[in-house]
Amino acid sequence: MKKTFILIIALLPFVGFGQATLSDQALQYLSGHPVEKAYLQFDKPYYAAGDTIYFKGYVTRGEHHRLTDLSEVLHVDLINANGKIDQSIKLHLDSGITWGDFALPDSLPKGNYRVRAYTQWMRNNGDVYFFDKIIPVGSLRTAKVPESLVKQALPPNLKPDIQFFPEGGKPITGIPAKMAFKAVAPDGLGIDFKGEIVDNDNKEVASFSAVHLGMGYFYFTPTEGKTYTAKINYSNGMTDVVVLPKQEPNGITLSVNNDSLPNAAILIKASRGYYRLNKDKNYTLVVYSQGTVTTVKCRLDSTEIKLNVLKRKLHTGVATVTLFSAENEPLCERLFFIQNYDQLSLAITGDKETYAKREKVNIKLNALNRKGSAADGHFSVSVINESNVPDDQNYRANILSYLLLTSDIKGNIEQPGYYFADTSMEARTDLDILMLTQGYRRFTWKQVLDTTKRPLEYLPEKGIAIEGEVKSVFNKPVANGTVTLISSIGGPILSAVTDAKGMFSFSNLLFTDTAHFVLSAVNAKGKNSTKIDYFDKPASPPVTPMLQSFVQSVSDTAMASYVGSDRLQQREILNYGKSKGIMLKQVNIRDKKLDNQYRTASLAGAGNADQVMHADEIGQIQGPLSTSLDGRLRGIVFAGHNPIHKIPYLKTGLGGPMLVIIDGTEVPADDLNFLTASQVETVEVLKYANASIYGASGGNGVLIITTKQGGGLAAKDIVSIGVLPIAPMGFYKAKEFYSPKYDNGSWIGKQKDLRSTIYWKPEIKTDKDGNASIEYYNADGTGTYKLVVEGIDNNGNIGRQVYRYKVE
Asked: Is the dihedral of CA 67, 70, 73, 77 positive or negative?
């Protein structure tokens, strides 16, 4: 006779009953491998060529989603339809938040682009925790599809892929089994189907059909000596036959009933043969929930053991329960989702239900936590005109679905917002089926139980790093050398000592856009006969292909409507500019030879030289460059190949050799003659005060040569001796979204305001009472305006709210 024990588990953080080894090891692993996740909110779901993509970044640390204090640099890439990085920026994280933008060129071809965001710390787990989102872009231009991609087109008769997932591990003879399944079409999306399970005698033992996005489940009890096959009929008319996972004659199973709101019921069942062999042995049940690990000792003194898990002791998100043998071998595992409805309550109220065109809108936001207390947090708000940006896709990803669900689950999750927008029993059942068919990826127990100490390859970034190496003129590493970093705009002078390999690093630097510095190096004896190499661009992580299912994010009809509206808006602006005579863009009409806007490698920037010669002045003379320049640079003579600055107050009338810079790198004067006049774009002469930016090295003046793009010296041919000017890229400075104010008379006239993004505010902070105010003006487009607020409070509570109103 079977005995049933019922044990109520009051789950507490990292409390173990009996054997605590697993809990301790899990705690040690988690504390040494804290997770960072990045989430971006965008101002709208898709764009047109010429638009600007605005986004807000949230980076959280740990399983409780608190804004990170680990990393302070977020890398964001815009990836084109061919999988190449078009733009890449670095953003400074201030307490885990930042914002930025990408300007899309007017000439951009249409296609599915991607925005990827990550910290260097995330790279220790590959790209598992990278934020990666498809951004559809509409355009009148069509990108030429590379032949390599054309060859990868799917054959039209390719069958869907179906997989079966026994609950808790493997089907065991004689034990009723819950078998989940998922069918995916060639485009990566779930497909409807139905079928039947037959045994090896062709006897039907169960029937089934997909209930949600190609997923579902059925029950059956494996019989000894039988094998089972699924006969499938897809909605597109195709058929298939799939062999089910093979049953084991003896074993133990684990199942979870997650239907009840307060409790999750765990059932452990052993076959009779397995029970006889393992009777009274100790097993360990481990429940992991968002950073909380609880172990429970279970004695196998019956073929069935029941336990109830109190959900309110767990955290909202993906949880996993694992059964271990006495030897700490994982036997069975099951995922289930905890939904405690503990997200922030965001109340949005407008001063009206219906507004007029160009009317001022006043929105009040109130944020409360689960206890009803004011939530002090960071939020972002987007307002779009849904008439201009029609969105026919239901249940898009959002901050809730990403941080609580999809970032912890393998593979593509279709319509992730559905599981948070719908709280019905049907939606909870569909979510539980998802848990049965998608694999958990936070960690594997093999990783946790591995006692080998493996060093982490990537450390958290606290700022921008300038790194490189110093070698002798004989290409030997210079150890214990001193490297000095000097900013062109003043400030402290920094020094670093090279290691045994000649490597140096200046870390945790904070500067925006492109900055100009000078690196100087001496060896341990103070001699500057050193060569400096600067590591300009650290390697970006490889871009991995995304499944086709991620691409289906906007229909052709919706995109065509949006692109048409966007072009109409641009035409209105253009016509308005013509009729009113306003200047839409800055246009520089200039004499080329007086121009101070030219490409230059000078630290002083364009327009700050004592003399500039452009390509047409230098001419196309072949032969050494010094020959072309001799006698044409004011106050400069050439002694051999060395440019010498004439200094009237010296008795000899001549100073010492000038500092020579080619494409930003200091070179010996002889390197001038590796170039011909036809390769040079500009030659600049800096003297006295203008040369002071190069410090003592520029005391005799500086000759700066900028070659034509693609026509200069190869980097390997340019050697810096002792001094190296560099221009590293700093943090990106985000653009401010422009929102017109009609109450002061702006935008008056015939021009129509047909903006699709009405308002974008990346940073809104609530006060001590959880309140914040939002003000902006409507455009000329009528219809439904959609306002979306997303954010996180200082305790890691997440919130999202959508508010709509009419404009007539």
From this structure: negative
